[in-house]
C-alpha cells in the first residue's frame, strides 16, 4: 500500500527532466553563435570593414594614395570584396589627381579582384562560412566595381593620348595702306567720267556758240560798210566754237570711255573684296540724271 | 658568293632583329580541351568535378607543393576550397598534397573549375586558358 501512496509523477521523472532541459536549452539556442576561426559572415565583415573605412575616409581627399594603400592592405588581409573596390576607387582618385598611370592600373586590378570575389561568393563552390556580402549588396558592389574599371581605363586612355600642342594663333595680317577693294579704280573712274561729262558740256557749248555764230552771220547785212570786219569776227567765233565742240567730242569720248571702264572694274573688284572680307561700306558711287529748266545732265556722287 | 647573298643576309638579319624585339609571351599557350594544362604528370585535373563537404574538411598531410597559376591571354582570380587564394599572374600558392576544389574566374566569367590533385613533392605550374 505504501508503495501505492507514492505520487505518480515521482515514479515517472522523464517528462519533468525533458521540460527542464527544454526550458534551459531554448534561451541558449537563441543566442548568436560566435563565428568559428576563419569564418566570415556579412555582419562580422561589415564590422571590420567599417573600422577600416573610418580610418581611410579622412585621408581620401588629402592623401588618396595613402588611403588607397591602407584600403589595399586591409583588403588583402581580409579578402573583403568591398574593401578591394574601395581601394580601387582610392587608386583611381590618386591616378586622376597625380596623372599616375601605375595608380590607375592598380585601380583596375583591385576593383577586378573585388568583383571576382563578389561573384565567387554567389557561386555554389564558395564556402558558406565565408561570406562578406548580404544578398542585396552583390549587385551594388558589382556596379561600383565596373564603374571603377571603366573610369580607370578611360583615364589611362586619356593619359596615353599624345599631348597635342595648341595650334599657333594666326594673327590677322594687317593690310598696309588702303585696302585693295577697288576704291582707287572707282575714284579714277569717277574722275574720268566727270571729265567725260565735261566733254559733253563742251560739245553742247560749242554747238550752241557755233549755232549762234551762224545765226549772226545770216543776220549780217552784206551792204553794210563793216560787213567784212563783222563777218571775220563772227567767223572767228564760229570756228572757235567748232573747235570747242570737236575738243568736247574727244574729251567726252575718252573721259566717258575710260571712266565707265574704270568704274566697272572698280565695282567688280569691290564685290570680290567684300565676298572675301565681308561687307564693309567703304566706297559708294552713284550716278543720277539731273534735269532742270534749261539744262540736263548727269550727277555723279561717290564716297571712297 | 652570288649577288643574292647580301639580300638574303639582310632579310635574315631583319627577321632576327624583329624576333628579338618581339615581346615574349607571358604564359605558355595551353591547347588542352579542358582549358587547363599542368606541368607535372603526377598532378591531375578533373574538370567540372567538385569535392564533397567531407572531402573538403579532410586533413591533408605532407610538405606543401608550390603551385603557380598562369592565365593564358588574360587575368583571373584563383579560389581554392571555397575561398580566395590569389590572382594570376601573381598567384603562387602553397598547397598541401591531395585533392583541392579549384575555380578560376575573371569577374562573372568562370575560366576553369574542377578538382586538382596536387603531387606530394616539387612544384606545379597550372596554365589556364582565358576565353
From TrEMBL, chain A:
The keyword Iron does not apply. Residues 1-37 form the signal peptide. Keywords: Membrane, Signal, Transmembrane, Transmembrane helix. The chain crosses the membrane at residues 243-265. Residues 154-182 are annotated as: Disordered. The keyword Transmembrane applies. Residues 154-163, 170-182 have a biased composition (Basic and acidic residues). This is Secreted protein. It comes from Nannocystis punicea. The lineage of its organism: Bacteria, Pseudomonadati, Myxococcota, Polyangia, Nannocystales.
From TrEMBL, chain B:
Keywords: Signal. The keyword Signal applies. Residues 1-26 form the signal peptide. This is PEGA domain-containing protein. It comes from Nannocystis punicea. The lineage of its organism: Bacteria, Pseudomonadati, Myxococcota, Polyangia, Nannocystales.
